[in-house]
């Protein structure tokens, strides 16, 4: 719970070892989110404990502000429908995508 | 295809889906031919109405908990209400490609 966004994944952000984990990494990158990543391939106990803790059977797992958000499918969905931007805003993170959009709006107003 | 059949039967019985597709995506991964390790399920049911996405996924995970504990290693879920399904393009995109991390 030390970071606002925490990801449990296979591999590390620079070298994901699973397409689902990679999808999560790429989405967070697009939004410019800083996060803690834990590699479950390095630690079998962690891999089992996190599944039990969240009552969720698969990896990756995304936590925002200590709350379990879901896996890759859910994060992709939140990314597509704008919910992710809103959730990040709630914890004081302004998504890079939102910044880009606001910059566009400003320039079109002029 | 015992696992695929079992997934299909369980979801049909418990979620009475309007539409169900169970796709074995294992051939996209680094597993022996004929494996049943990676699945995508598309479920459209009225039982998802007024339920957030996380809860819908939990419903599917719970129904398939035996499979997930015994060999099924990746499960991608598309969970929609009949209305959402009608409004969607009904195109289900394939899961992301393997990155070689299977098994460790």
UniProtKB/TrEMBL annotation, chain A:
Give every Glutaredoxin domain span: 5-69
Q: Say if the entry is tagged with keyword Iron.
A: yes
Look up the record and report any one GO term of the cellular component aspect. mitochondrial matrix
Has the keyword Oxidoreductase been applied to this entry? no
Give the matching SUPFAM superfamilies.
Thioredoxin-like
Name the Gene3D superfamilies for this protein.
Answer: Glutaredoxin
Q: What InterPro entries would the database entry show?
A: Glutaredoxin, GRX_PICOT-like, Monothiol_GRX, Monothiol_GRX-rel, Thioredoxin-like_sf
Give one GO molecular function term: metal ion binding
- PROSITE patterns linked: GLUTAREDOXIN_2
Quote the record's binding site residues for [2Fe-2S] cluster.
18
Which keywords accompany this UniProt record? 2Fe-2S, Iron, Iron-sulfur, Metal-binding, Redox-active center
Q: Which domain of life is it from?
A: Eukaryota
Q: Give the protein family.
A: Belongs to the glutaredoxin family. Monothiol subfamily.
Protein name per its UniProtKB record: Glutaredoxin-related protein 5, mitochondrial
From TrEMBL, chain B:
Organism of origin is Triatoma dimidiata (Kissing bug)
What is the similarity comment for this entry?
A: Belongs to the BolA/IbaG family.
UniProt superkingdom? Eukaryota
Query: Which InterPro entries does UniProt cross-reference here?
Result: BolA, BolA-like_sf, BolA/IbaG_stress_morph_reg
> What are the TM regions of this chain, as residue ranges?
none
- Gene3D superfamilies, alphabetically? BolA-like
Q: Which Pfam families match?
A: BolA
What does the entry list under GO cellular component?
iron-sulfur cluster assembly complex; mitochondrion
Know the name of this protein? Putative transcriptional regulator bola
């Amino acid at each position: 719970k030390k970071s606002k966004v925490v990801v449990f994944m296979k591999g590390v952000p620079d070298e994901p070892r699973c397409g689902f984990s990679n999808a999560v990494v790429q989405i967070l990158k697009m939004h410019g989110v800083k996060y803690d990543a834990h590699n479950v391939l390095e630690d079998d106990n962690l891999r089992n404990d996190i599944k039990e803790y969240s009552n969720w059977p698969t990896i990756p797992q995304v936590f925002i502000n200590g709350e379990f958000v879901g896996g890759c499918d859910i994060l992709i969905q939140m990314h597509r429908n704008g919910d992710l931007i809103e959730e990040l805003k709630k914890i004081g993170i302004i998504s890079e995508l939102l910044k880009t959009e606001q910059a566009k709006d400003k320039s079109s107003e002029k | 295809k015992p696992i695929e059949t079992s997934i299909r039967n369980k979801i049909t019985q418990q979620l009475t889906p309007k539409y169900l597709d169970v796709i074995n995506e294992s051939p996209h991964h680094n597993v022996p031919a004929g494996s049943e390790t990676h699945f995508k399920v598309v479920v459209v049911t009225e039982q998802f109405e007024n339920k957030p996405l996380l809860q819908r996924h939990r419903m599917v995970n719970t129904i398939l908990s035996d499979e997930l504990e015994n060999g099924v290693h990746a499960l991608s879920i598309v969970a929609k209400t009949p209305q959402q399904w009608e409004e969607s393009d009904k195109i289900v995109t394939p899961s992301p490609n393997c990155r070689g991390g299977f098994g460790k």
